[in-house]
Write a structure and sequence with these properties.
It is a single chain. The protein is mostly beta strands. The chain has a single domain, classed as Lipoprotein localisation LolA/LolB/LppX (outer membrane lipoprotein receptor (LolB), chain A, Clam), CATH 2.50.20.10. The chain has one helix and twelve strands, in the order αββββββββββββ. A twelve-stranded mixed sheet has the order 7-8-9-10-11-1-2-3-4-5-6-12, covered by helices on one side. The protein starts with a helix and ends in a 27-residue tail after the last strand. The N terminus and C terminus are likely disordered.
Length: about 210
């Protein structure tokens, strides 16, 4: 049961990261770090549909913004669990981040082969002002890297392939059985999730 809870927590964290991806069709590796922990996943995106396959995990997850649902799929058990997404976790099409107050262009860099403009973005989160860096790729028109100014977290997309994604990637196999979600207690020793911009309740920071 502990492993299931840990995986569910990882799923929620993963889709926090996906929320900064633009609504288009592509696949990529996503590398995130927080408090010394690094995680790598394969991500597939098609408009409001996202699929996350964490490296080394026996599960994968599908977020369907069009259906307002997240599925955690367990192929070994031919089963899945269902949860509600946070509206702020859904892929965004705009460059502007949730709660953005201002941005300043501070230079140009190349990120994983993509020419990008680096911005320092100031945003408001729960009444507190925060700052992050955003690398906006000029060739594919979405943020390929984000990082807290204080270095507490980073998110970077690598090996990006802009291409049509099959609809079957975003469906649970028809013969899989739905399981109940376990309780999600507070667990000591789990890494703190990075506080990314725009993860607010409906109507805030949008």
């Amino acid at each position: 049961m502990r492993n299931v809870i840990l995986i569910c927590s990882s799923v929620v964290f993963s889709f926090f990261l996906v929320s900064s991806a633009i609504a288009m069709e592509f696949s990529a590796d996503i590398v995130s770090s927080s408090q010394g922990h690094t995680a790598t996943s394969k991500i597939f995106v098609k408009d409001q549909k996202s699929r996350m396959e964490p490296k080394g995990q026996p599960t994968y997850s599908i977020m369907r913004g069009d259906k307002q649902v997240v599925w955690m799929v367990m192929p070994d058990q031919k089963s899945y669990m269902e949860m509600k997404p946070n509206p702020g976790q859904q892929p965004r099409t705009e460059e502007k981040v949730g709660g953005e107050v201002s941005r300043k262009l501070i230079g140009s860099e190349t990120v994983d082969g993509h020419p990008a403009q680096k911005y320092e973005v100031t945003y408001s989160e729960s009444g507190k002002t925060e700052k992050m860096y955003q690398w906006m790729a000029t060739d594919i028109k979405f943020p390929v890297k984000m990082a807290a100014v204080d270095g507490s977290w980073t998110v970077e997309y690598k090996n990006i392939k802009m291409a049509a994604q099959p609809d079957t990637l975003f469906e649970v196999p028809s013969d899989y059985k739905k399981m109940a979600m376990p309780a999600m207690p507070s667990m000591p020793g789990m890494p703190k999730m990075p506080k990314l911009p725009g993860k607010t309740s409906p109507g805030q920071g949008e």
